[in-house]
Amino acid sequence: MLDLKLEDIDGILVRYNVALEKEMTPDEAAEELYPKDELIYPVAKAIYEGEEDDVVDALQAAIDAGKKPIDLIDDALMVGMGVVTQLYDDGIIFLPNVMMSADAMLAGIDFCKSQTTEVPEPKGRVVCHVAEGDVHDIGKNIVAALLRANGYEVIDLGRDVPVDEVIAAVEKEKPMMLTGTALMTTTMYAFKEVNDKLLEKGIKIPFACGGGAVNQDFVSQYELGVYGEEAADAPKIADAIVAGTTDITALREEFHKH
Question: Which of 38, 97, 105, 225 has the least C-beta neighbours within 10 A?
């Protein structure tokens, strides 16, 4: 049995924040990044803490003070999620923290929508699915949640999705990007079939693929494939596309890491 003293535990909980060039706890690092606006600050903090009720309370306070609900999606919720994303990228917090924050942010978005008749404009539309024959959907669920938390409309086809259903959804929804996840090596080959059928129909959209069975070498074998090593890469790839990087080769140069 480990004999840890309090000072040992405190040391374990401290991360070195390279971006801010100082030792600090995750909470202290977040404090450095929160917006200074007294109405937006509590929203961002509640998102970082993953507290859905606190997010709603902070949003209500901002609305009572005169903020427009529709504006708070970009000006408060997205800002708070941006703090979480930066801390994750810096290795200060981890994926479970990000998922809790994403859930809190989505609750905030739903609340803002309920307080207005205005409809927020999504950054883009993405179709997500798990490969045909594969019932493991945890990775896909994380990808979908992170995309929604970053302002994208997600068409979630679910798990074990036949190739032809994926193609039909892409034709109908006309997304900016398609994502696919696979946990089993026996199912990931459906991605190549999806790729080929899209090309046959003249559809050339980035096809972001990942999951436990998938690796960069495999994804690089088919024309539309862009490999995402982590679920958090999905919104980053989507953001790159929105910013104008639609060429598959350019996306690979940015996101293929090995």
Answer: 38
Strands 125-130 and 177-181, by their bridges, are parallel
The whole model's pTM is what? 0.78
To the nearest 10°, report the CA torsion of 27, 228, 125, 235. Answer: 20
Per-residue pLDDT of 123-139, as tens digits, reads 999 999 999 999 999 88
Strand partners, 126: 154, 177
In the chain, count H helices and then E strands: 13, 7
- pLDDT exceeds 80 at position 94: yes
pLDDT class of 81 with cuts at 50, 70, 90: very high
Question: Which phi-psi region, left, alpha or beta, contains residue 162 (left: φ > 0; alpha: ψ -120 to 50)?
Answer: beta
Q: What is the pLDDT of residue 21?
A: 53
Distance (Å, rounded) from C-alpha 20 to C-alpha 151? 27
125-255: CATH, from 3.40.50.720, 3.40.50.2300, 3.40.50.280, 3.40.50.300? 3.40.50.280
